[in-house]
Amino acid sequence: MRKKIGECLIQAGLITEDDLRNALAEHKRTGERLGVVLVRMNLATEKQIAKALAFQLGFPYINLAENPPDPSAVILIPKEVALKRVCIAVKLEKNLLTVAMSDPLLFSLVQDLEFQTGNRIKQVVATRGDIVDAINTCYPDKALALRTSAPANDLAVVAPAAPKGGRAGGADVSGNETALARRVEEEV
Fold first, then answer.
1. Digit-coded pLDDT (tens) for 124-133
2. C-alpha distances in angstroms, 116 versus 12, 81, 119, 121, 131?
3. Tell me, what's the pLDDT at 131?
4. How many whole angstroms separate alpha carbon 170 and alpha carbon 104?
5. How far is C-alpha 122 from the chain's CA centre?
6. Residue 26: CA atoms inside 13 Å, Cβ hemisphere, count?
7. Which of 29, 32, 139, 146 gives a 20 to 30 Å CA spacing to 172?
């Protein structure tokens, strides 16, 4: 049976049993995750919680500032998905996509990413803050700028054809933004 995160933090000497009792009482009162409570109460840092979670669950921990994501891997996950689900692709080796996430137990996310990317997913743990920072710095903004500045006719040529009855020329491509952004990025 695996240890609970609070026990891992005590064993590592990061918090005391009293700290854990206080945090558990606050967790019970607010319904927040224990890690969030510990950080809010200044009993542990987000990095300490992430490392303890990785150890507890048997997943590798990655510091995204020291190990920045590979730009060719990053674009495999749409930015909107990365922001909503707080994850970022780190590297692609053959058909194994390494994805940093703050909660590696989100199996529905893993399944969704495997379906969307066509790759197997290897989860690694990173702090929520590191992931958000990496998303904000690693996604290619120039692709977004090119897409928004391109004339509507260029969008219709690059984007998949609109369904019958859809608007021609200035087709609504909002659902295809990611594919379009990837195509524009590849052409740059």
1. 999 999 999 9
2. 38, 10, 8, 11, 20
3. 96
4. 40
5. 13
6. 18
7. 139
Contacts of 28 by beta carbon, 8 Å cutoff, 6+ apart: none
Tokens 């918090």, located at residue: 15
User: Amino acid letter at 163?
Assistant: P
pLDDT of residue 105: 85
* Cα 51 from Cα 26, distance rounded (Å): 22
CATH for 71-138 is: 3.30.300.160
Q: Which positions of the chain have pLDDT values less than 50? A: 142-188
Q: Which amino acid type is present at position 169?
A: G
C-beta of residue 14 within 8 angstroms of C-beta of residue 44: yes
Q: Which amino acid is at 6?
A: G
pLDDT at site 138: 92
Structure tokens at 35: 């890690």
Alpha-helical regions (H) of 12-138: 17-30, 34-40, 46-57, 71-74, 79-85, 107-117, 128-138
Phi, psi of 10 (to 5 degrees): -65, -45
Residue 157 neighbours by CB under 8 Å, 6+ apart: none
Among 159, 154, 156, 151, which residue's Cα sits nearest to residue 175? 159
